[in-house]
Prior knowledge:
It is a single chain. The chain is α/β, with parallel strands linked by helices. Helices cover 41% and strands 13% of the residues. It contains 16 helices and 13 strands. Helix 3 (81-115) runs antiparallel to helix 4 (133-153) and helix 3 (81-115) packs parallel to helix 6 (164-176).
Amino acid sequence: MSTTDRSIDRICSALRSHISTLCRRLRIPVNVLDSPNLCTFSLPSTHSDGPLQIGITTSGKGCKLATRIRREIASLLPSDFGSAVERLGTIRRRIWEEDHRSHEALEDHTAVAENEDDDVSAQKPTFNQLVSENDIAAAKTRRIRWLSQICEYWPLRRLASITDADIDKILLSYSTATPSATPSATDSPPLDISILDFRSRPQPRIILAGSGPGSPSLLTLATHRAILTATVILADKLVPSAILDIIPRRTPVHIARKFPGNAEAAQDELLTLGLKHLQEGHTVLRLKQGDPYIYGRGSEELSWFKERGYKAIVLPGLTSALSAPLFAQIPATSRGVSNQVLICTGTGRKGKAPDPPVYNDSMTVVFLMAMHRIGDMVGSLVAPLAHSAGKEGGQNKEEGAVANGGGWPEDTPCAVVERASISDQRVIRSTLQFVVQAVETEGSRPPGLLVVGKACEVLKGRGGARWVVEEGFDGLEGFDDIVGVHSVGGVMREMAAEREREREAS
């Protein structure tokens, strides 16, 4: 800060102090920016919703913090809670009006009773019933006590579900009840709590969420919250146990029973189960591995539920097509080596083998769901391309058609990445010439994928061997120390346990 700036700051400071002193002397409220000791009042960060007004102040210690606290508090309130506050105020006002009318009716009844003739034989059944000031006070006390209790103890969502018709029912129940200073054990509440709770219950909804490549540390916050709050979870078979361990133990979980030849039937079963639970009012989480829109049938399921009247919420996940190569130290793109990435499936509809991509030396190709037929797939990749042809051998071929060969050189680097981001991750580095033999020798450890292209050897090579096997995962080593926790997965499991305790308490 220059000398001039310091001089200006001293002058402004003295001026602020002088103005504050004058205002205090003249009893004028004063607020001086960033000088709490010179203020006689502070301006809170406010939330307004009809009659509901919430103000947060840090007494000049942190304006931004006050704004954040206000946002956090407002987010915890039910939507349109100001209307609920208005209705509760209406109940209180109408109780006062009822009390006033009761006092007037009592005065009129007393005046009439004093003028009635004792010889009148047609007396009403209620003639000898004693109605006193104490009876009216008891009724008023009961109503006010009930209103105070629900405001103090009922969940906010239940209060927010009270309607105008409920207000009339409340007042009618107390006005028609027999006045008594001591409430009867058989007295029933003016509102059916089960009905109110049914109204305030969240609407049934379906969530399609990706669980990432496998590690709980790589879940998105949105998916983690969906796991904790869902009332039913339908999970893919390949969702790892580390993710399933986070699910609260009281939440029903159904694992897809998919195996070769049963994929379509298992998918139909999951969809039917999801629809059944939605019709029962549940929040259904369809938990998938990776990302729901990357070969996860996410769009199909979204359309299926939409046709049946349910709009799905889709939460993205960290797709293994990009994260698994990263954890295997394979950059999907690298300047001068690979300038494009292609994500393919190794299994088409109804198990049909898709056509292989044509060779491109500057492309990285990631094959998902391909390990069970890696031999056939690699064979089609290295098969030579056929030129377009006309009529051959008496068979008609469309002009421009090509054979199912990709034309990839056999010495193209590749890598098999299995169980990415989990402790038993395995990487097999090889070439298209030997990768099938490597998998047959080392065995399979699903789920896995195949990465093909020169990018596979940018950071790590094979050292001249036919294949190299790397065991274990240390991609997040040191991360726990950075964020200051022993285990991110452990923290998530503790959060799930806390959520479980909250459910049991409620």
